[in-house]
Amino acid sequence: MDISVEIHCDCCGSANLSIPDAANEATQITCNDCSADQGTIAELRDDLLACALQQSSQALRADLDKIP
Is residue 48 part of a domain? Predict the structure, then answer.
């Protein structure tokens, strides 16, 4: 099962986000296109994990529905 998670700006929809080189859990992420604040690295990680878990559960249900 493959899962793909995309990150986009909450304001403009761009995928062009800025994460500094020396980032840690509290580092703020910003959009390079509209400069909107996107939260912290920790918040991004939590959002990505939740999205991946949701997609994996949906994919598993779809696979189970195919079993005769």
Answer: yes
Query: Cα 56 to the chain's mean position, in Å?
Result: 14
CB-facing half-sphere around the CA of 26: CA atoms within 13 A: 0
List the domain range (segments joined by +) for residue 40: 17-65
Residue type, 66: K
38 within domain boundaries: yes
Total count of domains within the chain: 1
Q: How far apart are CA 19 and CA 27, in angstroms?
A: 8
pLDDT of residue 42: 96
Residue 36 exposed, middle or buried by CB count within 10 Å (0-12, 13-18, 19+): middle
Cβ–Cβ under 8 Å, residues 26 and 45? no
pTM of this structure: 0.70
